Amino acid sequence: MKSRNKATLIGLIAVLLWATIVALIRNVSESLGATGGAAMMYTMASVFLWFTVGFPRLRGFPRRYLIWGSVLFVAYELCLSLSIGYADNGRQAIEIGMVNYVWPTFTLVAAMVFNKQRANLLLVVPGFLLSMLGICWVLGGDRGLDLPGMLGNIKDNPLSYGLAFLGALIWAAYCTVTARLANGRNGVTLFFMLVSGVLWIKYFADGGGEMALNLHALVYLLLAAAAMGFGYGAWNVGILHGNVTVLAGASYFIPVLSAALAATLLDAPLSAQFWQGAVMVCSGSILCWLATRARRGATAIPARANRRS
Question: Where are the domains of the chain?
Answer without folding.
Answer: 2-308
